[in-house]
Amino acid sequence: MKAQKYTRSVAINMVIANMIGTGIFTSLGFQLDPVFGIPDGFAIIVIWILGGIIALCGATVYGEIATTINKSGGEYAFLSELYHPLLGFISGWVSILVGFSAAIAMLGLAVGEYFLPLIGVSGDFKFGGIEIGKVVAFLVLLLVLLIQWQGVKTSGKFQNYMTAIKLGLIFFFLLMPFIFGGNYEPSNNHFGADKDSWDTIFSLPFAGSLVFVLFAYSGWNASTYIVGSLENPKRNLPYSLIVGTLIVTVLYVLLNLVFMYVSDFDDLAGQLEIGNIVAYKAMGKDWGLVFTSVLSLALISGVNAMFIAAPRVVQEIGKDYSLFEKLGQESKNGAPKLALLVIFAIASIMIFTVPFNELLEFTGVTLGIFALLTVLGVFILRAKKKRTSNTVSSFLYPITPIIFAGFSIWMIYFFANMKPMVLVWLLILIAPAVLLYYSSGRKNNELNEELLDDGQHDKEANNEVDA
Fold first, then answer.
1. How many CA atoms lie within 13 A of 13 on its CB side?
2. Amino acid 402: pLDDT
3. CB crowding 85-121: b at 16 or more within 10 Å, else e
């Protein structure tokens, strides 16, 4: 029986759903902080456009790497091939525990926090001694697990439907200032550039704000985790990365314009629930409450997208290491059931044990480090002239990887100075991964057989397609 594969639309929606999460609805509050932020309308728009450009640079480079290596698992597969299996294993370990499980837990908690007001329940309310928001988050994860259990076809359809609902709600949000224009007084914020705007753009707070923006853009590489389960990856993989990232970039810029058009900077500065504040002002408390609660349910699309991607990392590790061999199995419908249970269990534990802000900080910097290493790996591919007939070249190479690497190093350096303990915890997390690697029994120490040697490169180069 022919294996079930994810379609191009699922891949695009995975990228969109992974990117549009809590970041866009929380970051602006940090950026407008009067002391540590950049309370300038023009600078805010510039930083969100810049974030999109950086993400697009990463996306086009990932397209080349993913179509060359042609394995599911994202950074785990790429770093194993580009550098050393140990680095890939560490990346997979960190992705499972932090990159995905922590992110899934955060989205689940966000759904819970946004949804509770709709049913008239306070966040302080407890069910069996447990905060009700955490109970809702756990139930969201359980629902998505059951959907994933049905296999590739069902989970793919659910992804498309939920992402369509999310995009529909966001488009409504963008039109909201005009639909309800008579119900509120627009802000006095200005978006034109002046001397202060340019001083702000070249300031240290701008660099700090970029950290939160790049976190909001994380997820642009989502479809690389399912390369092996994707129809025609040579065309669909790069297409999904670029199109998905472009759509989200446009939406992010427009959303921030709406946020600042409706509400004054003073009302938004330091606030986490930006969407609530803006919706309540434009639509009134009752309708604003309904809208933001329904929008929170649309965040489930992000949970589902991560439940599609994360088990592929677990599954690839199971295929490569005898100690985890059972995790590499999947059912006839394409569901990696044991791998799904692993992700569900870890994310559920995090919901009940780890504070939201610590999850946010730890996730952002770890994702940045491994994405940086992956993008730098394109120089290794080029130097060794590794190409296959599936390879899709990076757009504007080497400019795009240099731009991405430069800003990533800037972000990681800034974050390391601001929160040095995050790096300490990362090292602590890595230690057991090293021990597991050397005791796990790697099955295959060879590079991907599809990577061609130098002599074959010229023959295959004619088949190369530019992204």
1. 26
2. 97
3. bebbbbbbbbbbbbbbbbbbbbbbbbbbbbbbbeeee
Cis peptide before 420 (omega within 30 of 0): no
Q: Which two tokens mark 429?
A: 């997390």
Per the structure, how many domains does the chain have? Answer: 1
> Can you give the pLDDT at residue 279?
86
Segments forming the whole domain that contains residue 162: 8-97+158-285+357-441
Question: What tokens were used for 464?
Answer: 């190369």
Tell whether 210 is covered by a domain.
Answer: yes
- Phi, psi torsion values for 376, nearest 5 degrees: -65, -25
CA 102 to CA 93: how far, in whole Å? Answer: 13
**Domain annotation covers residue 31:** yes
- Residue 4's Cβ-count burial label (10 Å; 0-12, 13-18, 19+) is middle
The CA–CA distances, whole Å, from 185 to 42, 268, 423 equal 21, 15, 45
DSSP string, 381-402: HHHTT---TT-EEPTTTTHHHH
Domain assignment of residue 324, yes or no? no
CA atoms within 13 A on the CB side of 353: 8
Cα separation values, 317 from 33, 63, 196, 279, 369, Å: 43, 22, 51, 44, 20
Q: How many helices (H) and strands (E) does the chain have?
A: 20, 4
**Helical spans, DSSP H, in 36-151:** 41-69, 75-82, 85-94, 101-115, 132-148
AA letter at 417: N
Alpha carbon distance 166, 129 (integer Å): 32
What is the structure's pLDDT at 30?
A: 84
Note the pTM of the prediction, 2 decimals.
0.85
- Output b/e per residue, 126-164; b: 16+ Cβ within 10 A: eeeeebbbbbbbbebbeebbebbeebbbbbbebbbebbe
Residues of the chain with pLDDT under 50: 446-467
Average pLDDT, the chain: 84
What's the farthest any 2 CA atoms get from each other in the chain?
69
Question: Is residue 58 in some structural domain?
Answer: yes
State whether residue 344 is helix, strand or coil. helix
What is the token pair recorded at 334?
A: 């394409």
Sign of the C-alpha dihedral computed for residues 208, 52, 274 and 267 taken in this order: positive
